[in-house]
Amino acid sequence: MTKRRMIAAGLALAGTAALLVTGAIDQTGVAGDDTKGRLTVAVFNGWDEGIAASELWKAVLEDEGYAVDLVYADPAAAYTGIAKGDYDLTLDTWLPLTHAEYMKTYGDDLVDLGAWNDEAKLTIAVNEDAPIDSLSELAANADLFGNRLVGIESGSGLVTVTQNEVIPGYGLEGMQFVTSSTPAMLTELQAATDAGRDVAVTLWRPHWAYNAFPIKDLEDPDGLLGDAEGIHTVTSTGFAEEFPEVAAWLEAFRMDNELLYSLEDAMFREGGDDDYGPVVAQWIADNRDYVDTLTR
Questions:
Q1: Mean pLDDT, residues 55-76
Q2: Nearest of 23, 46, 54, 156 to residue 100 by alpha carbon
Q3: Which residues touch 182 (CB under 8 Å, ≥6 apart)?
Q4: pLDDT tens digit string along 83-136?
Q5: By C-alpha distance, which of 280, 276, 278 is closest to 12?
Q6: Is residue 92 within a helix (H) or strand (E), and if so which, with residue range?
Q7: What CA–CA distance (Å, rounded) separates 269 from 265?
Q8: Exposed site from 32, 90, 101, 202, fewest CB < 10 Å?
């Protein structure tokens, strides 16, 4: 598959994940009375690291005899569902900054099992040949970027931080801040880099876009995007009692960016469609030594 087709496939997958930004899409796992129990995992629309981790754990847990349903939803719906006990967990809570408001709102009805990755970072990215390297230079060169900063879903932690901290902090009020969806942002990023145009987008690490597009992060000298964050597993209050074995596995779960990038690449750039099962199964086979540690 060519790089262009791989990128297009990744964009199509992200688009599928974000079809219902305020609703949910169910992906039902195996069923049967002989399972150890059924878990429902909330997966944030458009957040590929969470999709990757959720699909990995779906495969791992089904191999261990559990039934797993993945429910795609926006963060507000996901946290509401977990707090009510409708969903069991999410693997994509960014702390201490990005999802802090959700934890503050629903914290009494959520349990934080800790971070499985501590290398997450919110970013503003531009094409790698852009004539600036810092957010402090963006306002003076806004015309080069069409006076536009392209964001993701309105209401996301990244958009909130950009609106409340980055734009006023770096004097970017003269730029149009476009918020729509992660797939729309990626589509614009691809179009601009293909055409050799300067473009500025909100992004985050880890994300497969850094392998797919010629881009770089703008420096954040005032630290307004925050320091590196942890990606946490958050569960309902009754989860550990109902699924003690799984809770222990998830509490011990760790995955660095190198491993996560390789899984994301396989799923979103090389997979070619939204049937992640065979792709994840192959990745598990190729990384068996690591995967075997997840349930020890």
A1: 97
A2: 156
A3: 14, 18, 45, 46, 47, 152, 153
A4: 999 999 999 999 998 899 999 999 999 999 999 999 999 999 999 999 999 999
A5: 276
A6: strand 89-95
A7: 5
A8: 32
